[in-house]
From TrEMBL:
GO molecular function terms noted in the UniProt entry: S-adenosylmethionine-dependent methyltransferase activity
Keywords on record: Methyltransferase, Transferase
InterPro entries xrefs: Methyltransf_11, SAM-dependent_MTases_sf, Thiol_S-MT
Keyword 4Fe-4S in annotation: no
Keyword Cytoplasm among record annotations: no
Organism of this sequence: Nephila pilipes
Annotated ranges, domain Methyltransferase type: 33-130
Listed GO biological process terms: methylation
Protein name: Methyltransferase-like protein 7B
Gene: Mettl7b
Pfam families: Methyltransf_11
SUPFAM superfamilies in the cross-refs: S-adenosyl-L-methionine-dependent methyltransferases (SSF53335)
Length: 203
């Protein structure tokens, strides 16, 4: 149900990427890295002619992802790297055209370290695409509630931290250009994870 509800957000996120690639030569393949890809919910929105590398800290997702990936012939799956995103030693410097994370930064160990690694592996001019639920603005009742329920939420939601300011992390990381769009996800979403972020950052 959750994946179904956020389809419009995925479309908006990747439309932002497509707009930034308007002058691209489609005959040249794009090197794409997705971190924490899960079952591959983003695959149908990828640009044409992609070479895909996947990074995750465990292999549990692979059977679901590989089955789904067969439905998208415009993507050439290259390999899976089993590593933490905070230290992607098997991914070379300046090797990726695009890095994608979606609903990952809320539960990773160190968002600053992850974004630092993303900057390292992106080619000059490469794009970081981020879709995430984030904290309410400072000094709001929403942020207070997120912090109050965090200890229990963390235990029952696979390590999720609902009050992170991911936009701030991306803006301070050293990208040459950052587009961040924050919005309230709507009445159906659990209040704790209502604020959402779409970001496109260029190295």
């Amino acid at each position: 149900m959750y994946n179904y509800k956020i389809i419009p957000t995925r479309k908006k996120t990747f439309q932002l990427l497509q707009n930034s690639l308007a002058d691209r030569d489609n005959s040249k393949s794009l090197e794409v890295l997705e971190i924490g890809i899960g079952g591959g919910a983003n695959l149908e929105y990828y640009p044409d002619n992609c070479n895909l590398t996947v990074v995750d800290k465990n292999k549990f997702f692979e059977p679901y992802f590989k089955k789904n990936a067969k439905n998208y012939p415009h993507i050439n799956y290259k390999r899976t790297v089993i590593q933490c995103a905070e230290n992607m030693t098997e991914i070379q410097d300046n090797s990726m055209d695009i890095v994608v994370t979606s609903y990952f930064q809320c539960s990773c160990y160190d968002p600053q370290a992850v974004v630092k690694e993303i900057l390292r592996v992106l080619k000059p001019g490469g794009k970081y695409v981020c879709m995430e639920h984030v904290g309410f603005p400072k000094n709001t009742i929403g942020l207070y509630i997120q912090k109050m329920v965090y200890p229990i939420w963390f235990l029952y939601s696979n390590g999720c931290t609902p009050h992170r300011d991911i936009a701030k992390v991306i803006k301070k990381a050293g990208f040459s250009d950052v587009i961040c769009k924050e919005y309230d996800f709507g009445h159906w979403m659990t209040y704790i994870v209502k604020p959402h972020l779409i970001a496109l950052a260029t190295k």
